[in-house]
Structure formats: structure tokens, C-alpha cells
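Researcher: Next entry in the queue.
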Amino acid sequence: MGDPIKTLTIKGFKSIRSLEDFALKNLNVLIGANGSGKSNFVSFFSLLRAIVRQEMQLLIAKRGGADAHLYLGPKETKEIVGKVYFGQNGYEFTLEPTNDNRLIFAEETAYYNGIHGETRRPFGAGHTEAKLKERKDDSGMVHKHGVPFYVYDAVSSWMVYHFHDTSETAAMRRKGTTRHHEELQPDAGNLAAFLLRLREQEKATYTLICDTIQLVTPFFEDFKLRPEPNGGGDTEVLLEWKQKGNSYPFHPSQLSDGTLRFICLATALLQPHPPATILIDEPELGLHPYALTVLAGLLKQAASRTQVIVSTQSAPLLDNFEPEEVVVVRRDKGESKFERLDAKNLTEWVNDYSMGEIWQKNVVDGGPAHE
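Model: Structure for this entry, 371 residues:
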């Protein structure tokens, strides 16, 4: 596990005009009404991942261009600023829009604060893709690796999971190559291959995942993962599964959307070597109340091993968390505002009501009626 994110600054990004030096804990549960900005917060990390992987232009083009990413558009906002600090390191960047609706770097810096003071490694300006990746092998002044190596190693590992697409054509329901098994992909498109690797190399974790799935899907017994040659020199695997008391291999199309999403969530949160930071947007989609209770336990367990950021508008899921773990997101005149709850300010309420009930009663800003 890498160092968790300590503080985060986002300026000019979508509905987030200015979020400065916002402190993050190991478990962070974002709540708010539809359109409050929860998903935009998570989307910032998708942008960050694309930046460090040198895929920013592709992501920006696919999601409406630069104008769609600037707070209230280019007339109101001239730049996007991101600053993320973790352990003794940090990564800072400023993006500016171009006339052809792209974003380019006005500034990019890797940062280290050690016993001898601050070290900054600026990468210049005017480039269309981040230079962090290509500079990660720069030698350090004292050690083999320099500051960019440690910054890239951390930031590139942060993962935004989005398991909403469980349609019949979703990758998780189709055959996939067994070679694609090192890490669970953001959309779980390699779920079968990843589970196959766990069964072969991390048996205890694989068994725990199956046992957890059985808690919410009692008829489920196990996966039947059978690698088969595809005729092109490669092997593929399908997410087949078995029902208790029956040896027939069921097709992944015979899993409900909710069951499949829970399988993805259980796999992501129980994986033996999780990313340093995990983000999940609205994991409650399609899950029944008992499954939400199990999910809350998984989120807390995962937060003991890595940093977890989850956005939700589910009161039953919120019931399982403490006030200090909750960040309220509200929309004020088009701008997203973020505030971590303080148990001291809710003393009169927490003794009689759950967190979900407190939120539904609009005791805190950003409740369901504050759309």
C-alpha cells in the first residue's frame, strides 16, 4: 500500500470552482443531491489518471473537449489547477484551454519535502501530454530514483472504479484474454482473468471473495473459470459460475446486473494488493438493503488497508458510517462546496438518528431536498 492522499486542491474543474487544501482520510464518503458535484470530484481523478498515463487528449476529446471541463466555460475560467500531496511527495499541474478546444500544460511539477527541505522538479510548459511518465526514470541526486519516479509510482496506481455498465455487451460479460490479469481494470472488463489469477496465486483471497458473494447471493457456489485457446495463440476465459447443488456452468448473462456489480465491488475491495487510493462512484446502484450493509463492511475493511473515496446518495449505505467519515457536497449558485462533518456539531442528533436519517432530514446542508 502506498501513501494515502493528505490534501487536495482543485480549481476551475467542472462544477468545482475552488477546493483548496482539502484533507482526506483513509475512508471518505461523499454525499449530496443529484448534480451537487460528487461525480465531478471523482471525475477529477479520472483526469489525473489519464494525465499520468499520457492519455489526457483522448479523455478530454471523448468527454466534450476543454470547454466542458472548465468551471462555467472558458469565459469564466482560464485554467484548471490540480495539486495532490501524499506522504512526502506531491504532484501539481495547471492546464489551459486552446483555440481548438484542447488542454495544454501551463505548469507541471513533481514535489518532495524531506529532511533537507523541499525539492521541486518542474517539467516546463506548452506540452500536450504530461512529462511525468517519461521523466520517471531520471536518476536522483542521492538515490537511484529521483522525485518523478516516486510521484509517478503513486499517482499512476490510483484507480477509479466504475461498474455501472453491466449490459449484455459489457466486457465483464464477454470472453477476455487471460494475459490481462495484473490489475482489475476500471470497468472490470478483465474480471474473469483477474479472478482466475487470484484462484491460482492468491487462493485465500479468492475464497474470501466467493464467501462474500454468497452472503448476498446465497445460491452462488463458485466461479467456473476455464481458459480456452482462441485459435490465435492466446487463451481466453469467460466468467462462468456454478449454483449450489448443480454442476451446470451458468453463463455470465445469467447473472443479474446487481449481482454482477456486487461481484465487481467485492473483488475490487478485497483484492490482496489494492491501489494506494480507490475511488468508486455510486456503488449502491442495483443493490438491495442487505447488500448495502455488506458493502459498507467491505468499504471499512478496505479502508484499513488503503485509502477509499466513495460517492453516494444512498441513505441506507450512509447509515453505516461515522460523521467524520462523511463529506457533504452541495451546489451553491452553480459551485460545488465540500464540507466534512463534525460529530460535535451533531451531538443532539446522532444519539437518536442514524447518519442516513440525519441527511434525509436535511440537518446538514446538501440533503436530498436541496437540489
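Model: The two ends are 37 Å apart (CA to CA).
Researcher: Noted, moving on.
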